[in-house]
Design a protein that fits this description.
Layout lengths: L1 H7 L3 E5 L5 E4 L1 H6 L4 H4 L4 H4 E3 L9 H6 L4 E8 L8 E9 L5 E10 L1 H15 L9 H18 L3 E9 L1 H8 L1 H18 L5 E6 L2 E7 L4 H15 L3 E3 L2 E3 L2 E9 L6 H17 L5 E3 L4 H20 L3 E10 L5 E12 L3 E3 L1 H9 L4 H16 L7 E6 L1 H4 L4 H12 L6 E6 L7 H14 L2 E7 L6 H6 L4 E4 L1 H9 L1 H17 L3 E4 L5 H10 L3 E3 L9 H7 L20 E11 L2 E10 L3 E5 L1 E2 L6 E7 L2 E11 L2 E6 L4 E2 L5 E2 L6 H6 L25 E2 L9
Parallel strand pairs: 12-13, 15-17, 17-18, 18-19, 19-20, 20-21, 21-22
Antiparallel strand pairs: 1-2, 1-6, 3-4, 4-5, 5-6, 7-9, 7-12, 8-9, 10-11, 14-15, 14-22, 15-16, 23-24, 23-27, 24-25, 25-29, 26-32, 27-28, 28-29, 30-31
Length: 692
C-alpha cells in the first residue's frame, strides 16, 4: 500500500538521522527531481534542498532542521536542479523516551504548477505585465520604504518622472499593438541607459518613474537625464513601421525637495510639467518657484492672443554668413514679445512659451508674413529664414498662406527660406508630400532643420526637395568638446549634402576654434554669436545700406559661458554678514552684482542663489558699485536654459543644527546669524533698475 501511495504521487515521504543526513526518500520524489536515490541518500538534507521563496525572504531550511522542531508547508527546490520541480516539505522531529533527538520523519508534495501560478499572479500584482518593470503599486512601496530607511541613515535619494513625447501619435497612426511594442523597447533602453543601482517602473500609459538611491549631485543627474533623452529619441523599428518619439524628464531629490513619498513624487511631477512646457525633449530639476512659474507661464500663454491682436510681437534677425566670403546671405527670423507688464521677452524665452501654446501655428503664420514684409526692403541677395511649426506645416492652407505672404511683400519666392523640422514626417504621408511638392513648385527654399538630432533619416532627404541641411546645434556644440567623433559626423553630413546637391548650415558658433573646425569640414553657411547676436530691423537697414554686408568673426573671442540678464535680488555673504545686492547677469562661471561700495578685487563671497544654492565666488573686477564675480565651482545647466548649483545645503545638516527635517524653502538661505557681525562694505546709493 505504501509503494502504491508513493507511486501515485498522493503521498511522498522522507526521513533523516540525528545528524541531518537523508536516510529515506520516496523514489517518486527522486524521479521528480531528476536525481537518483544513490546521489541523495546519506547526504545532508540541507545540502539537497534549498528554499524556493521567490524573494529570498522565506524560512531557512537549515535553521528549521537545526531547531529540532516541527515544520510544515516549506517550498523547496533541489540545490542541483534549481530550475526543476518545486516541493512542499513537512517534517516532524523524533525523540527517544529519554528525550534524545533521533531525526526527522516527513512528507512531500509536488507543488510546481501551483507555485508558478502564484508566482505569475504575484508578478502581475507587483510588476507591469507589458514591460516587466515595477508597476505603480510596487514603485510607491519601494519609494516609501527607501525614504523611511534613508531618513534614519541621513541618505539622499533622487526620483525621476519621465513622460514620452509624441507617443499618442504612434498609437493613433500605427495602432495600439505598435504602441505596446514601442513601450517594451523604451523599457529596454531605459535599463541600458542607467548604469547604476536604480529601480525603474512604468506607472501606466507612457509615464515612467525611476528611483536612484544615494544620489544628490545634480550634475550627475543632469548627465543621466540627457543620456536617457538621447537614447529614447533614437529611431524605433516596429513591425508596423519606423517611428521616432522623444522624452521629457522631471527630477526631484529627497530630502531637499521633499521628505515623504507624496512630496518627492509631487515635486518630480511639477518638474516634469515644467520640462514639457519648456519645449519637450528636456529635463528639469524641481525648485520651490516652479508652482509660481507654472501659473505665470499659463498666464503668458493666455496673453498670446492679446499679443497677436495688439501687435506686441516683433522680429529680430540673426545673420547667416557664407563661409567663403563672410558675406551675409540670409537672416533668420526670431519672434520676440513686447509684453505690457513683463517688458521684452526675448526669442529664447518666447520659443519656450509658444511651444506648448494652442496659438503656435498662428504665431508661425504671423512670423512668415512679417518676415517677408521686412525682407522686401533688404538687398535682393539676402534671404529671410523662418522656422515652421509642425502643426502649421500640416495645416491644409499652409502653402496658400506662404504664397500670400510672398505675393503681398512683393519678393521673389526664392528669398524665403522655410526651416522644417523632421517631426513633420511623422504626420500623414500624403499631406506632407503634397505640401513639399507645392512649396517646391512655388519656388521657396526648403531647409531640413536640426539634422543629426537623432531623428535623421535618408528617407526624408530622398522624399523632399530640400535646398539645405541645418546641422543640429547640439551636434555642433559637441564637436568643440569632443572633436574626433562629432567632427567626423559633421564631415559625413557635409559629404552627404554635397552628394545630394544640398548646402549645409551650422549655427550656435561662439568660438574661433569651432569656426575654424567647421570651415575645415566644408560647412558652407555659418551662424552664431561669433558673428552677431540677433539684431533689429534698423540695424539691418544701416548695415546693408551699401548693398553688401560682411561680418568679420570675433577672432579674439574664446568660448565663453553665456551670460543671462536676470536683474534680481540675492544675498552675498562675507565674514558672517549677509548683504542684499542686485544680480545683473549670470553665467556658468560667474556673475555681475550691483549695490556694494568699495569692494576690493580678491574679496571672497558666498553667493546665495536661493533654495539652498550656495556658491563660493571671488571678486575679479570692481568698478564703483558693480563687481564681477568668478565662481569657485562652475554652475550647471538645469535642463531648460537656466543655471543651478551642482549641490545644495543638506536638510540633514540643518536638522542637526536643530531645525526640523523639511524640504528646502525657496528664496534666500538664512543660515547666517548676523547678531554681532560687523559689515565690512557699505551699500552704494541705489539706482533705478528696470526689473526684468
Amino acid at each position: 500500500m505504501l509503494d502504491e501511495l508513493e507511486q501515485s504521487g498522493l503521498g511522498w515521504f522522507w526521513a533523516s538521522d540525528d545528524k541531518g543526513n537523508l536516510t529515506y526518500l520516496s523514489g517518486a520524489i527522486a524521479a521528480r527531481l531528476d536525481l537518483s536515490l544513490g546521489e541523495l541518500l546519506g547526504q545532508p538534507v540541507a545540502a539537497i534542498f534549498t528554499a524556493a521563496d521567490r524573494e529570498g525572504r522565506g524560512k531557512s531550511l537549515p535553521l528549521m532542521l537545526g531547531a529540532h522542531k516541527a515544520f510544515a508547508g516549506l517550498a523547496v527546490r533541489a540545490v542541483r536542479r534549481l530550475d526543476g520541480a518545486v516541493l512542499r516539505l513537512s517534517g516532524q522531529p523524533l525523540f527517544t523516551s529519554d528525550g534524545r533527538f533521533t531525526g526527522f520523519r516527513g512528507t512531500g508534495a509536488d507543488i510546481s504548477d501551483e507555485f508558478h501560478r502564484e508566482a505569475e499572479t504575484e508578478k502581475l500584482v507587483r510588476f507591469d505585465s507589458l514591460t516587466g518593470l515595477s508597476n505603480r503599486h510596487r514603485m510607491a512601496h519601494l519609494i516609501d520604504t527607501t525614504l523611511t530607511a534613508f531618513k534614519a541613515a541621513r541618505r539622499n535619494c533622487a526620483v525621476m518622472m519621465l513622460d514620452l513625447d509624441r507617443f499618442k501619435h504612434v498609437n493613433d497612426t500605427l495602432g495600439h499593438a505598435a504602441g505596446d511594442e514601442l513601450l517594451k523597447q523604451v523599457a529596454a533602453r531605459l535599463g541600458r541607459a542607467i548604469d547604476r543601482e536604480c529601480e525603474i517602473g512604468r506607472l501606466g500609459g507612457d509615464e515612467f518613474q525611476i528611483m536612484l538611491p544615494d544620489l544628490d549631485d545634480r550634475g550627475v543627474l543632469g548627465e543621466l537625464a540627457v543620456k536617457i533623452i538621447s537614447m529614447l529619441r533614437q529611431p524605433y523599428s516596429l513591425e508596423e513601421g519606423r517611428c521616432v518619439i522623444g522624452a521629457s524628464v522631471g527630477i526631484a531629490i529627497a530630502p531637499h525637495d521633499g521628505v515623504s513619498r507624496e512630496d518627492i513624487v509631487r515635486s518630480a511631477d511639477l518638474a516634469l510639467y515644467a520640462a514639457k512646457n519648456g519645449g519637450r525633449g528636456q529635463y528639469r530639476f524641481f525648485s520651490g518657484e516652479l508652482e509660481n512659474e507654472t501659473i505665470f507661464r499659463r498666464r503668458l500663454e493666455e496673453d498670446l492672443g492679446t499679443a497677436l491682436r495688439d501687435e506686441q510681437l516683433f522680429l529680430r534677425f540673426e545673420p547667416i554668413v557664407e563661409a567663403a566670403t563672410l558675406s551675409v546671405c540670409a537672416l533668420e527670423a526670431h519672434v520676440c514679445w513686447q509684453h505690457a507688464a513683463r517688458g521684452i521677452i526675448d526669442e529664447e524665452e518666447f520659443a519656450q512659451i509658444v511651444e506648448g501654446s494652442a496659438l503656435h501655428s498662428e504665431v508661425g503664420s504671423w512670423a512668415i508674413a512679417e518676415a517677408c514684409q521686412r525682407a522686401a526692403s533688404w538687398p535682393d541677395t539676402v534671404r529671410v529664414a523662418v522656422n515652421v511649426p509642425v502643426a502649421l506645416f500640416l495645416a491644409e492652407d499652409f502653402v496658400d498662406q506662404v504664397k500670400q505672404a510672398v505675393d503681398r511683400a512683393g519678393i521673389a519666392p526664392a528669398r524665403l527660406e522655410l526651416e522644417i523640422s523632421e517631426a513633420v514626417f511623422f504626420g500623414d504621408t500624403s499631406t506632407v508630400d503634397r505640401a513639399l511638392a507645392a512649396l517646391f513648385k512655388l519656388g521657396v527654399r526648403l531647409t531640413l532643420d536640426e539634422f543629426g538630432s537623432g531623428y535623421s533619416s535618408l528617407a526624408y532627404l530622398r522624399r523632399a526637395p530640400f535646398d539645405a541641411i541645418k546641422i543640429d546645434e547640439r551636434l555642433v556644440s559637441e564637436a568643440e568638446s569632443h572633436d574626433s567623433r562629432e567632427l567626423g559626423l559633421v564631415r559625413a553630413i557635409v559629404a552627404l549634402a554635397g552628394a545630394l546637391q544640398m548646402d549645409t548650415i551650422a549655427n550656435g558658433i561662439e568660438s574661433a576654434a569651432l569656426l575654424a573646425a567647421l570651415k575645415d569640414c566644408g560647412v558652407r553657411y555659418l551662424e552664431g554669436p561669433i558673428f552677431s547676436e540677433p539684431v533689429d530691423h534698423d540695424t539691418i537697414a544701416h548695415e546693408a545700406a551699401g548693398g553688401s554686408w560682411k561680418i568679420e568673426p570675433g577672432t579674439n573671442r574664446t568660448h565663453r559661458a553665456r551670460r543671462r540678464t536676470v536683474f534680481r535680488k540675492i544675498q552675498v555673504i562675507h565674514d558672517d554678514y549677509a548683504y542684499e545686492v542686485t544680480m545683473r547677469n549670470l553665467s556658468k562661471t560667474g556673475a555681475l552684482i550691483e549695490g556694494l561700495a568699495s569692494v576690493p578685487k580678491g574679496t571672497q563671497f558666498v553667493v546665495d542663489l536661493g533654495g539652498g544654492q550656495l556658491a563660493v565666488a571671488t571678486v575679479t573686477r570692481s568698478n564703483s558699485d558693480v563687481q564681477g564675480l568668478e565662481f569657485e565651482q562652475p554652475l550647471i545647466d538645469d535642463g531648460s536654459g537656466g543655471l543651478c548649483t551642482r549641490n545644495r545645503v543638506s536638510p540633514y545638516a540643518l536638522a542637526a543644527a536643530g531645525t526640523p527635517l523639511a524640504a528646502l524653502a525657496p528664496g534666500s538661505f538664512f543660515g547666517i546669524d548676523q547678531r554681532g557681525a560687523i559689515p565690512k562694505f557699505g551699500y552704494a546709493i541705489s539706482r533705478s533698475i528696470e526689473q526684468g
